[in-house]
Amino acid sequence: MKTQEAASLLESLIKAMPFYQKTYTEDTCIIIADTEKVIGYFPGKDIDVKIPVGAPIEKFIGTVSYNALVTGTLIQEERGSEVVGFPYISTANPIILDGQVIGVISSIVLNSKMDLLRSSSEGLSASVEEMTATTQAISAAFNNVIHQMDSLSESSQVVNNDIQSIQKIISFVQEISKNSNVLGLNAAIEGARAGEHGKGFMVVATEIRKMANNSKEAAMTIGQQLIDMEAAVTKMNQMVIAIKNEMNQQGGTLQDLNSAFEHIAATADDLASSCALKVT
């Protein structure tokens, strides 16, 4: 049987429910029960679970209010909208007098804003993870292109080296052509001096000079083509280096962007975790 002191304490708490409600930043309803029944209920502005005063405490078996009354400990839980049509946080605190539990005071706090914030944080985290994966894929593609650019630059250098080797051969051919032309000219002069006996010798000398001139012209043509080719390869190599430098710079920007995404994802995870309430 309740003592007068216990009854007085419970009555004081019932009268204080409107003031207690104002301590919450979100819409809240307050319930007070003794060890037998509900003795006080104060609905919120929008949140109203319509708990009747006088309802037996056994009707609330399994709730935080009943469990706090039985265990004598503070109990808190978070529920979604599937229970009463809106998300809420329920907290039940046993009322103890002289070491005995004489009742329980419970609050049901509307949790729509926090639920929306948590949901938004989780959505943001998922979006950021997707963007991070995309930037990582782009960064990997950049690195692959840069590697291919390095290979292309090395190949162009090999081509340039080959061109220079061929130009040396062309120079050698031109030198032989020059010497052959001089040799043919000398042979023609000697053939002319020989008169009738030197005609055959002059024919051979003429063919040597003709072959020397043709070799000279071919060597000059090939040499010019090699010069043009070397210029084109050099220009291509310069473009490859420029593109590689630009891609390296863009790759650095992607790394910075990826770091920023990771920071946002971590912040969103922390926010979602801070919004989550563990049942106690």
TrEMBL record:
PROSITE patterns in UniProt: CHEMOTAXIS_TRANSDUC_2
One term under GO cellular component: membrane
SUPFAM superfamilies: Methyl-accepting chemotaxis protein (MCP) signaling domain
Boundaries of every Methyl-accepting transducer domain copy: 112-280
GO biological process, one term: signal transduction
Pfam family, one: MCPsignal
Entry coiled-coil feature ranges: none
InterPro entries in UniProt: MCPsignal_dom (IPR004089)
Record keywords, A-Z: Transducer
Protein name per the record: Chemotaxis protein
